[in-house]
Amino acid sequence: MLIILFLIGSFGNSVVQEKLIPFIMIVIILFIIGHALEDQKKFDLNQLARVEVRELYVKTENGFEITEEKDFDVIREAFEKVEWEPNTMMDIQGERTVEATFFYTYEENMPEPLSMCKVYLMEEGSISLQSKKEEEGYGELSKEHAERLKFLFF
After folding, report:
1. What is the pLDDT of residues 9-53, one digit of tens each?
2. Does an H or E element contain 1, and which?
3. pTM score above 0.90
């Protein structure tokens, strides 16, 4: 910021300074606003408000909602262990499949941002995940780390 102001001052022409300073200030403000909006797009599992789980590929529509903090702890612990392959989409055939929709609360009385993830229970007991978030993509959770999450989702 100081460098920019120094460069503006070195022009010496007050007309150029009068037009350049507001322009640079607008650019800086837009940059700050852009980064603030980008941070809102990031989903923090510590801000979970609820998780809706719906089993896919079954004849009857059955779903449920997770709202207990102890269950959020299980989800957080499991997702910390997931080995993600960012920007990767896989064709996964699991034994059972659920779609989990994660709702987050950042501010009271504001709409809840959400993210979605398909969770696949594999035959050997591990879990595969396909996230709609590009920075996550495809992920795997080993059998040993999948047990508690299986109990919640399946």
Report:
1. 555 556 555 666 666 777 676 666 655 444 444 568 888 899 999
2. none
3. no
